[in-house]
Specification:
Layout (H helix, E strand, L loop, with lengths): L1 H4 L7 H11 L3 H17 L2
Protein name: HTH cro/C1-type domain-containing protein
Organism: Aquitalea magnusonii
GO molecular function: DNA binding
């Protein structure tokens, strides 16, 4: 997990599903959150 957080490796779809399953949320919710955070970062100077 740390390697993904540090961007040492790319996350696979399978890993995304495993993380979502462990958290008890749909994978789409994780992707939506990531998109929102990225948009927020892009809008800040």
């Amino acid at each position: 997990m740390g390697r993904i957080e540090r961007s040492d490796v790319a996350m696979s779809v399978g890993t995304l599903w495993q993380i979502a399953d462990a958290l008890g949320v749909p994978a789409s919710a994780l992707l939506q959150e990531a998109e929102q955070l990225a948009a927020k970062e892009d809008s800040q100077p």
